[in-house]
Design brief:
Layout lengths: L1 H23 L4 E5 L6 H13 L5 E5 L4 H9 L5 E4 L11 E17 L15 E3 L6 H12 L8 E3 L4 H8 L5 E5 L5 H8 L3 E3 L5 H7 L3 E6 L5 E2 L2 E2 L4 E13 L4 H15 L23 H9 L10 H5 L1 H49 L4 H19 L8 H22 L1
């Protein structure tokens, strides 16, 4: 009885451990909300997809209008993680977490040669500004800059065109200028830089604007940083820049958090025009509360366990230890029980025959005729044959031998009574 209870307790505990252990294994796929197809965020999303594929994680890229739609998709459960532009007003009520800032992206404004756009946003008035579609972070940043410059009532019209559409709007005269917040790798940004008919607008009073615009910092693009011949820009240019971040739902699997942050370290650690080597990913200015595991990974780097164990085990090593601790308590009793169970099982194979022998002895005691005794004898032959065919370890054959001796004594009794 004690053995049975110990077995039940051990199996129950092992089942619970197995149930929680299954939860350690992360999903094999995730959805990453990016931005417009083939845009800057989309290109970066493709790099994350390739990096996570190394560990067998399939990343589905979701095309969106921009950062605001990305946030909506996370909240609605349509995306697991998103690239989100800095400077957006996000609330803690949405149960979101940041996995760190991953790169700086400049605010770049271009105008046509005939546009009267001033370099000081505080003097803008009566202009048509292509600033991305509704739901994009670019449009939100343009509105925020207009408010920060104090010209929200100056007749500035925000045209719903972004990327290539914004380029077309300025070229065909339906917009006076275009407003971009994009990584330098964005194809449309490079096209605007190299178009001789489009003029870059170097904003003045950048430091003052950075103080007024939430999430913005002042950064310098060195002369010739884009091309040396001809030098673009021709002189150092101070620009406003926003920190883009990875944002996820609070219940994102810890192993995916770990893998995304390590991927960000690989993809964004190199020197860029706007920042130095290993400045990103960063824990600065998260748009929502920063995940603590992400903070530790960014500040301290991956542990040596990441070089030895699968990424999802290394990411949850503390949880793995908590699951293993109960095993340390139940393993010694189980190891002691196993030999007892083995002995019981082998003896049980013989005891079952003793039960049949005992029944046949009772049947023989009640036999009145030769035929009834022959019936008992036939049944004894079956039991004897079954014992002879048992494949028993050497240590347990004595029990079977004793049982067959017992059968021999019963046969002698049958012979005596028959004669």
């Amino acid at each position: 009885m004690r053995i049975a209870l110990a077995l039940v307790a051990a199996l129950t505990l092992l089942s619970a451990i197995l149930y929680f252990a299954i939860g350690l294994k992360p999903p094999e796929s995730m959805r990453l909300a990016t931005g417009i197809g083939e845009g800057g965020y989309w290109k970066i999303g493709e790099r994350y997809k390739a990096e996570l594929a190394i560990d067998g994680i399939n990343v589905e890229l979701l095309e969106t209008a921009g950062s605001l739609e990305n946030i909506e998709k996370i909240i609605n459960g349509e995306a697991d993680v998103a690239i989100v532009q800095g400077g957006l007003e996000l609330t803690d009520e949405a149960d979101l977490q940041s996995l760190g800032a991953i790169f700086l992206e400049p605010i770049a404004i271009f105008r046509s040669a005939t546009s009267p756009l001033d370099t000081n946003p505080g003097e803008w008035s009566d202009i048509r500004l292509a600033a991305g579609p509704v739901g994009s972070g670019t449009r939100a940043a343009a509105s925020a800059l207009i408010d920060a410059a104090g010209v929200s009532g100056a007749g500035i019209e925000l045209i719903e065109a972004g990327g290539d559409e914004a380029l077309g709007a300025v070229r065909n005269g339906t917009a006076d200028a275009m407003f971009f917040v994009a990584p330098l790798a964005a194809p449309y940004l490079m096209e605007a830089i190299f178009d001789p008919d489009l003029l870059f607008v170097p904003m003045s009073l950048v430091d003052a604007l950075a103080l007024k615009l939430p999430g913005a910092i002042a950064a310098t693009v060195p002369a010739g940083a884009i091309t040396l011949d001809p030098p673009r820009p021709p002189a150092d240019v101070k620009v406003l820049a926003l920190r883009a971040s990875l944002v996820a739902k609070n219940d994102l699997h810890p192993a995916l958090v770990d893998r995304l942050v390590n991927a960000a370290t690989v993809l964004h650690r190199d020197r860029d025009i706007l920042h130095g080597y290993r400045e990103y990913p960063s824990v600065d200015s998260p748009p929502v509360p920063l995940n603590e595991s992400a903070r530790q990974l960014i500040l301290n780097g991956p542990s040596i366990l990441h070089n030895i164990l699968p990424y999802w085990v290394a990411a949850q090593f503390g949880r793995v230890l908590l699951l293993l601790l109960p095993l340390l308590f139940i393993l010694p009793p189980v190891l002691r029980i196993i030999p007892s169970i083995y002995v019981w099982f082998q003896k049980r194979r013989i005891w079952s025959h003793y039960q049949r022998i005992e029944m046949l002895e009772s049947e023989l005691a009640q036999a009145k005729t030769i035929g009834e005794m022959e019936t008992v004898s036939g049944k004894l032959d079956q039991v004897d044959a079954s014992l002879a065919n048992l494949k028993l370890p050497l240590a347990y054959r004595q029990g079977a031998y004793d049982a067959r001796l017992h059968i021999g004594h019963i046969r002698q009794e049958i012979s005596r009574r028959q004669s």
